[in-house]
Amino acid sequence: MHAKIRLPSSGHNTPSPPASPLRSPRLRHPRSAKSSAARFALGVSNRSFAQRLAWIVLSLLLRRQGIFLFAPLLYISGMLFYMGTVSFDVVPDAIKPRRAPGSVYRSPELYAKLRHEMDADNSTTDAMSTIWKHAKGGDWKPCINKFSGGLPESNGYIYVEANGGLNQQRTSICNAVAVAGYLNATLVIPNFHFHSIWRDPSKFNEIYDEEFFVKTLENDVRVVDTVPGYLMERFDRNLTNVFNFRIKAWSPVQFYRDTVLPRLLEERFIRISPFANRLSFDVPPEVQRLRCLANYEALRFSSPLLTMGETLVSRMKERSANNGGKYISVHLRFEEDMVAFSCCVYDGGAKERDDMIAARERGWKGKFTKPGRVLRPGANRVNGKCPLTPLEVGLMLRGMGFDKSTSIFLASGRIYDSERHMAPLLEMFPLLQTKEMLASPEELAPFKNYSSRMAAIDYTVCLHSEVFVTTQGGNFPHFLLGHRRYLFNGHSKTIRPDKRKLAVYFDNPKIGWKTFKRHMLSMRAHSDSKGIELKRPNDSIYSFPCPNCMCRANKTEDSRTTTP
């Protein structure tokens, strides 16, 4: 027998759904609540205090679900509380960022580790006689055409001021010859601008052989010592009244034709100051020829400087008799101003830091202390911008196969903290010489207080060495690179180390001698393979004389034909 059901008012005969359970705790069966509480108490009593506390908190959260709305606020509050109780002055080692390899000066540690193995290594072959494999049988020879006919009437006089040190002035001279020849102008012997850093008041004829310079260029460019008096009277015999062109760096030769030439024709005498780097590297072949002629043929050091330089070359060869008269020359830039300008940090501690701050302020007042200026010595070292120390040069050369019997000529100014920094280099190469060691004080006296004259002596000794090592950029090594190519059949015979790689090797005290030596020999081989390079766009003929100033040996005779 079925129970009666109430039909819905809609007339459908489907059964009604069961009633929803009552959710209010007040309407629950009292015995059921007591039973649950008893079971909860029994379960909690068998747990540890931590478990009971966690169970109670969880139960409250489940019973009051609205509390989850405050969870983000609770989380943030907890983090702020934690941050307030932790000191960030001392960061745990586990989360400290790793420094970049090569960012710290640790070369003394490496030297101490490798020294015994390095001295015990007897596997070194005769590096001096085997270093230049690509230089043998070189097929490039100097071939600069010279005019033999007369010159047309001059369009006027050009006077330039050559600024900078020895080789920056050399750039100005060669560019001035090229511009004067291109504009068919007469060049007045360039004036050397006195600079507060180099502090050398030398005149042109005290650095270069002026008579030889004029004679070599006589069929290509007119060169005079002074401007005619009648022309100077137009300007009240005052150079400051002469129109001065302020020309942008690396200006194309067309600028001189379109802008300078009309004014030259009008005034008949113009000034260009300053003049360093005021002509583009890429110019027509005829203008490039004049540059080659000036740099490689016309510019010869004055007789006193040339004699002193050749005397030191002879003495270096005498001291290198065990290597057939061959020696290495090293251009080392570790003077105080160079170290200060690089903003690199070495191992001199507080004294070094104070010395560098004082040197930067003395030489470049305010440049390095401007608001927002940040010095990054580690980044500079990783990027290969730090000057190599004497110790690092010694390690590199020993790794390249040169032993203690190698004669070295060191071209440098006054080394910073020289007694400490030079000691390890002299231990590795006891036959090392400088111009001060090769010549007596009396012999050097006429040049001693003139930086450009002393640099000219270094230049001559480096020019005639079997190996030239450059350790830092600058005009000195760039000019030597090209001049040595011009002398040695197109091969520079120059070691140009990769300082970025060196920084990593020197910052690795775990490296072994065999591994280190392998890397150095590879670097030496790379310099050999790059010895002969042709000039590319935007390269300088002062570093890359091929093919503008040199030609293939089998074509030399054809290229030496003179232009009527």
Automatic annotation (TrEMBL):
The chain crosses the membrane at residues 67-88. InterPro entries: FucosylTrfase_pln, GDP-Fuc_O-FucTrfase. Keywords: Carbohydrate metabolism, Fucose metabolism, Glycosyltransferase, Membrane, Transferase, Transmembrane, Transmembrane helix. The keyword Chloroplast does not apply. It comes from the Eukaryota. CDD domains: O-FucT_plant. One of its GO terms (molecular function) is glycosyltransferase activity. Residues 1-28 are annotated as: Disordered. One of its GO terms (biological process) is fucose metabolic process. Belongs to the glycosyltransferase GT106 family. This is O-fucosyltransferase family protein.
